[in-house]
Amino acid sequence: MLGLKQTSLLFGCALAGKRLSLVELRRGAEAIHGRKSLQATLSVDPLSDDTALIGRDIRNRMEEAGMRGGRCVLCAPMSLFYSCLIETPPISGEDLESFLALQAERNFPWPAQDLIWRSIFHESEERKRYALLIGLPLSKVNHLREAFAAAGLELVSIHTNISAFSGAQPASRIHLHLSPEGVEIGLLREDKPVALRMLAGCDPSSLDARTLAREMRVTLGQIPPALSDTIHEVQISHATDAQARDEERIQQSLEGIGLRMKRFAPAVRIDWDDPAAALAAPSAPMLIAARTLSGGSVAPNFLPPKINRFQQWQSSIASRRMLWIGGTAAMIVVIVALMFFWQQQRLTHLERELTSLSEDARQAETLQTKIRAYRSWFDRSARVLTIANQLTGAFPETGSVWARDLEIRENGQVICSGSARSNADWLKMRDALSQSPGVTNLQVNQVRGDSPLQFSFSYQWDGRPSHGI
Description:
Shape: globular
CATH class of the largest domain: Alpha Beta
Mean pLDDT: 85
Strand content: 25-35%
Low-confidence stretches: 465-469
CATH architecture of the largest domain: 2-Layer Sandwich
CATH topology of the largest domain: Nucleotidyltransferase, domain 5
Structural class: alpha/beta
Radius of gyration: 29 Å
Order of helices and strands: EEEHEEHEEHEEEEHHEHEEHHHHHEEHEE
Strand order of the largest sheet: 8-4-1-2-3-14
Number of domains: 3
């Protein structure tokens, strides 16, 4: 995996807010050895601040713990990821890849070239096929790669925390991962994620079992019953040592309301030099680093492969070759087009001579046809553009609310459907739109789901023509 067969030392890292967790593992002859571990609170935001400052802060924490640089696997917080479950048609190969790429662009607020997305497939007992699409913005990937490079760490893979606890136990379950940012919920069907959800701002230390059970039912309701009927057990993990008590308390509370709990059994044995560290529960970065060192793979990985100089040179050669081929093809197309143009001109001239007696009538009919066909293009009011501009101005620039479908009817009725990261973002956009000039009779047709929330609304546009577009 990524050239790690020759690597005996690997770091496992997890980020949750400003909280940094780091473990140093080494591959031995018979087992994976845990050498050192680190949990610290950074003075900067690792997801938004300057990469040089982030790297220096991480490097200082590592030096205090006696750690040096090397290769590293990263567990990123679920707040960075987007996910959706879709039903796939009976296609395969390039057709399926094209379909999934189109669905990713429709469901995520990022263009395809700015998003790293992966797919996980499921099949129900009725032979229906589904795919869980998980996306991570490319800008965040580049930011994390630069920040860790500044700390002397070379990222070799990026994963979700839920991925660390999948792929080792062939069973269906709900996995709850407690972190300083909230609770990450992952539905695992046959040990593969089928749904991901983040309860942001939810403090695990004050979370009661009934509230958590309600949120789990909400998450189960977001997937088809054919995929959720086999999920009956609950598994819990935590991100920091301080949350070990929260995990034990929540586990006892869930057992008290009748839910079946499932203990996690790591597939890879880890021998710690520090006996106290051996008693701690395995963390997500520790499990991913151990499986990677032992030669296994952890999917999905959201880090794109790094292009070396030889690959860049090959790409440059291929680009020049394709440029030459493209230029030759374009020249052939132009020559053929000119030949057809000359032929068409000749035929037109002959037809004009044959129909000279009805020339005036034919020209009048042609002009009338063009006027009917292009009359709407010369409407100076630019009504459609005005409506689109007004609607776009109500959406926030942060990408937390996005539209999937827009319909503008002749009577001025506008129908729009889309998704939002949260109910607050949706309400803020709706209020901004209702206060926009020319928007009347705003009606909400449908609101369902949560993170992302799906909505549909309509309104009547009676704005005056605008000549500024």
